[in-house]
Amino acid sequence: MTVNPLHFALAVGISRYPGGYRELQGPVQDATAFVRWLRNPDGGGVPDGNIEAFLSPAGEDMTLRDARPAKQAIDQALWDLRRRALAAVAALPEHERAAARASSRLYIFVAGHGIMPGDGETALLDARAEPDRRTNLELSAYATWFRRDGAFAEVCVFADCCRNFELLAVAGGPDFDKPARLGGPVVVLMGWATTDGALAFEDDGRGYFSRALIDGLEGNAADESGRVTAASLHGYLSTRVAALTAGRPRHQQQAVRMPVEQPMVFGPVHTPGPFRPGSPPPGPGRRPRRVRITFPQGFDDEVELVGPSDMTPFWDASAGPWTIWLHDGLWTVQRAKTAVDTSVFRDHGTFTVAGKDLDVALGQ
Question: If you average pLDDT over residues 94-106, what whole number do you get?
Fold first, then answer.
């Protein structure tokens, strides 16, 4: 169990938009699930006092004038989190401050209606947004501000919202003065629910991206060492969201965008289960399982395997079935060196390893 006193978080879930956007089912539940992970000592380990949460109120009338959460209140909460982080480091003996600051982290999670403004990348519409007055939080601008500011050593931004092009919309950055570069280097991780100009979707009251994100952070995205890293989370999200939306109409199939800059670790190490006599020697983390993959008749191209791991192994299908040792998690076989070409495989090449050896038949 771990508590991270210098980790701070903002979570926003906006389901209701009196200005004219349709009501959503997932954002409040998604933000609530993320906060639950943050508070869990075996999850994010963020103290309650370091978390600011903004959720659409349920069961009350809202006019556009009093709709919430609004950008101004969210910006104020972010500023308060930064102030608390700086005060916590400043309260330490001087010789401890550099190491303490290096362990600091800011999470920003948002879910709701979103756009890609003409001068931005990914923006959450606040509750007072209207179709011709799209008040928003442009998240790349926030990430850039905190990168230049340096109050936090690590900044993680996750957005479960659409990114459809709105060229006339103005990107809404933080209402802070220009940053003064108070700290040292900053590592930024940004995860978007979908690619440029595309829509994000929900089902059964949850966003596909958020559902996969929480599952991954809770351990399903752990790599061979048992750690959930930025790289393993990226691999897991890409394959898991593709699997969750594989049965949807093509225009509802999502693809995650998540640039990974530097190593970053989430939560505790997930320890391996007991070792079974006769199995191959276990790796440094969870025990691998024997997986045998057979390909569609006549398929003889090179493939690659993508999943919750830093590795991307390749195989020439003309050599026959592929036997490989994999740890538990979601994996996807695709044509090698392509942008997720899985159309020739059953279940889009996706399969789950879960506690036992597995035979995977990819023929349609």
Answer: 94
Q: Residue 97 belongs to what H/E stretch?
A: helix 94-102
3-class DSSP state for residue 209?
A: helix
Residues 6+ apart with CB under 8 A from 226: 269, 270, 271, 272, 284, 285, 286
DSSP reduced 3-state for 262: coil
* Spacing of C-alpha 18 from chain mean position: 28
Distance of CA 7 to the CA centre of its chain: 17
Question: Over the range 244-277, which residues count as b (16 or more CB within 10 Å of their CB) and which as e?
Answer: bbeeeeeeebbebbbebeeebebbbebebeeeee
**Residue 22 pLDDT exceeds 70:** yes
More confident residue, 208 or 289: 208
Helix (H, G, I), strand (E, B) or coil at 185: coil
> Global pTM?
0.78
Residues 6+ apart with CB under 8 A from 162: 113, 114, 115, 193, 194, 198, 199, 200
Residues 330, 321 contacting (CB under 8 angstroms):
no
Model confidence at 255: pLDDT above 60: yes
For the segment 183-229, what is each residue's pLDDT rounded down to a tens digit? 788 999 999 999 899 999 999 899 999 999 999 999 888 887 788 99
User: What residue has token string 């989370």?
Assistant: 233
Full DSSP string of 272-298: --PPPTTSPPP-SSSPPEEEEEE--TT
Return the structure tokens found at 144: 């850039």
Helix/strand/coil for 44: coil
pLDDT higher than 90, residue 248: no
Phi-psi category of residue 279: left, alpha or beta, with phi > 0 → left and psi -120 to 50 → alpha: beta
Mean pLDDT, the chain, integer: 88
> CA torsion, points 176, 180, 183, 188, in degrees to nearest 10?
50
